[in-house]
Amino acid sequence: MTNGQLAGMIFAVVGGPGLLLILIGVIIRLVQKKKMQACTMQTMGAVVDYRFRGEGRMQPVVEYEAGGKTYRALRKFRGYVTVQKHNPAKPYQDSGAYVSKRDFLHVPMRAVTNLRSMAQQLWPMGSSMPVYYDPARPERAYAEKLPDRMPAEAVIFIWVGAGLVLLSAVIAGLLATGIG
Hints:
Distance between the termini: 14 Å
Structural class: alpha+beta
Shape: elongated
Number of strands: 8
Oligomer: single chain
Radius of gyration: 23 Å
Number of domains: 2
Order of helices and strands: HEEEEEEHEEH
Number of helices: 3
């Protein structure tokens, strides 16, 4: 096998999955953008429940009415940040969770963390929250706000994919020139 063939194979094996990851990231972004553009109607909903998905991830469930029917939407965040805090003197004290300007939910975790209490402090049961929904498909909605940034998953897929493509191009270039 020549260096050129080996370089092509390296580019295909490492760069191919990189291109696929970039494509997945772009598709995630386009799906979000299409949904955002369709969600043109606004109404007020009320917090009726909470979802806890483990590792500090919590979301309020917002109930709203559209076209005479009742729907539910989850408040989605761009991402979650959990910080482990160890204070042996106060193992049961929950310090507050908060949402950053970049729409990340920050949740301080302790040996014993009461996520329900934190959720109730952030979004009291029955509190009102705006809901943006698609008038053609009212079940498609965003609670509290429309996303103003690319989803973290899309950013990760695109950057990891770009890194793989760049790595494969560097390795293929070195092999093609006979340096490798």
